[in-house]
Amino acid sequence: MPEHFYAREPGGADAVIEPRLNRLVELRIGGDIPGLAMENLTNFAFIPAQTRRIITGALLLACLVLLTGIAAMIVMNRATYLSTVLDLTKLAFYGLGIWVFLLYNSRTLSTEQLLSRTEAFLTKEVTRTLSLIERPAGRFGEPSADIRLPARVTTLPSETRIQCYYEIASQQLGALRLHIQCNVSRMLVVYFLDPELAEQHGEIQKNTITGAESAGWKSHMYGVKKADFLVDAPEYYELMFERTLERDFLFSSSEQLFIANDIAMMTRSIMLERHRFSGEARPSQCASECDV
User: 213-247, pLDDT tens digit by residue?
Assistant: First the structure.
């Protein structure tokens, strides 16, 4: 476990020592973090492209047919229904104009708006779900409020606002570092594991990887390397999960909750498998030392 996660205070209680990182933002769970605020914005931009083309074509065709009808009535000197056709033509052109206006605005979504939603998801929703990975310490029948022991999650947002670095400190499952990048429709989750167990992580995390892949994630093992987004970072064994997001991910609270819970479950599984492995490894290590 990294030294800065836990230290003994004079009173004997475990305390979390903040890592020496610039721009450290600590988000405490338990009232300090509000729910992810979703603005009342239209999802027009996320109408499927095929549907947009069909609607545009239908409006253009209606305008063309009505204009042709007006021209035919004028040529044949039949003005009986001309006023009605003119009114319908006006409505068709009004509809086409509004539709073109909406199409144009849908292509000019504010970059600041997208970045703000991405940052809110990474620093609030993901942090909230990661804090809930602690295993209950009580028994059936006990009030959940009495046995809930949230994990401590410290976050370091990037200036790019599309990625965030996390450190989790759990009294039961130890400590873990991970990095998440959300690039509108692509999600990357990188876990930093013990480099000394490089040859065993594939076996240790086999169940986690299988479960994640069955849920739609792609896994990649990059071996031991230095984290390329932190200065003077130590070497870790990198395990990465990748996922393509829904088109309206940044505007859908249900999709965000689903992905955040997925990340929390993967994280809990990684920490739990590592905890089980370390518990199984200790007896054999002790036996070998005793034989010596």
Answer: 999 999 998 888 876 666 667 788 999 999 999 87
Specify burial of residue 268 (Cβ count, 10 A radius: 0-12, 13-18, 19+). Answer: buried
Sign, CA torsion 196/201/205/209: positive
pTM confidence score: 0.63
Q: How far apart are CA 75 and CA 217, in angstroms?
A: 64
SS3 112: helix
Q: Could you tell me the residue ranges of all domains in the chain?
A: 7-35+110-137+144-291, 46-106
Three-state SS letters, 146-207: HHCCCCEEEEEECCCCCEEEEEEEECCCEEEEEEEEECCCEEEEEEEECHHHCCCHHHHCHH
Three-class SS state of 229: coil
Give the CA dihedral 19, 20, 21, 25, nearest 10 degrees: 50
35-74: per-residue pLDDT in tens? 333 343 345 666 666 777 888 888 899 888 888 888 888 7
Residues contacting 253, CB < 8 A, separation 6+? 36, 38
- Upper half-sphere CA count for residue 240 (Cβ side, 13 Å): 15
DSSP SS3 for 135: coil
